[in-house]
Amino acid sequence: MSLFSLDGKVAVITGSSRGIGKAIAQRMAEAGARVVISSRKADACESVAAEINAAHGEGRAVAIPANISSKSELKFLVDEATRQLGAIDVVVCNAASNPYYGPMAGIEDDQFRKILENNVIANHWLINFTVPQMIARRGGAIIIVSSIGGLRGSSVIGAYNISKAADFQLARNLAVEYGPHNVRVNCIAPGLIKTDFARALWDNPETLARATATTPLRRIGEPDEIAGAAVFLASQAGSFMTGQALVVDGGATI
Q1: pLDDT recorded at residue 246
Q2: What's the rounded Cα separation, in Å, for the pair 146 and 190?
Q3: What contacts 109, CB < 8 A, 6 or more positions away?
Q4: What local confidence, expressed as pLDDT, does residue 207 receive?
Q5: How far is CA 154 from the centre of its chain?
Q6: Distance (Å, rounded) from C-alpha 220 to C-alpha 191?
Q7: What is the pLDDT of residue 13?
């Protein structure tokens, strides 16, 4: 069996109707997993699930919409995924929010709260709902999609970066707690990726030129270039890795 095989595994991926989450779902399905497509909009989830089923066979993907800001909807996501596909082996906390661009002095309390709640606390909720079944089976992989923003400051996306730094620590702490049960928790820290979510950072040619000028690969990344890291962390290939932040940024942070 390939080190990167996910045959027989069930993976739940939030924010998987587009961008990085969609790419992760597609590649995990290609590696053999049955995947749960989840985001706020049901029609977008159904479309991606249909696309994956057409490529890999009926039943390979199911759509279960959920808003990460709702604790009850995340509980439903886990319960319904388990009901439809069986025990969950992999959770990818990919969905996030960033409603504010600008210096920290200008952010409203509700904006700061939303960033922290959706990017940190919602991950905590989803993991807590899923991990008991992983502990019971003595195996599981949890992946949090963080950002290289959590490794440095910014005058534009400071609050977002604070939340992503917190995700690194969430992974470290949960890795300590769940490691004795053979449940691994890691982060992926993408650099600038060409997604709708990050459009404000790459859509302007001048902004893009500044972002790539000091990046060794001289370009931004594509969603599919993050998916391979997720497959690695979910599979046997990553079986001795936990509590880490895997940076995938074209060399930007070096």
Answers
A1: 98
A2: 7
A3: none
A4: 78
A5: 22
A6: 8
A7: 98
pLDDT, residue 194, reads 84
Structure token digits, residue 88: 């969950």
**Is-contact 74 81, C-beta < 8 A?**
no
Q: What is the pLDDT of residue 83?
A: 98
Catalytic residue selected from 100, 101, 160, 178? 160
Question: pLDDT below 50 — which residues of the chain?
Answer: none
What local confidence, expressed as pLDDT, does residue 201 receive? 64
From first CA to last CA, the distance across the chain in angstroms is 35
The rounded distance, in Å, linking the Cα atoms of 96 and 109 is 18
Give the contacts of 28 (CB within 8 A, at least 6 positions apart).
Answer: 6, 9, 11, 13, 35, 90, 227, 230, 231, 234
Q: Which two tokens stand for residue 98?
A: 């960033």
The pair of structure tokens assigned to 130 is 């899923």
What would you report as the CA-atom Rg of the chain, rounded to the nearest whole angstrom?
Answer: 17
Single-letter amino acid, residue 141: A
**Amino acid 108: pLDDT:** 97
Active site residue 160: yes
Question: Do residues 171 and 195 make contact, with C-beta atoms less than 8 angstroms apart?
Answer: no
Q: With left for phi above 0 and alpha for psi between -120 and 50, is residue 127 left, alpha or beta?
A: alpha
CA distance 134 to 39: 23
Structural domains for the chain:
10-193+224-246 (3.40.50.720)
Inter-residue contact 87 to 35 (CB < 8 Å): no
**Are the beta carbons of 63 and 48 closer than 8 angstroms?**
yes
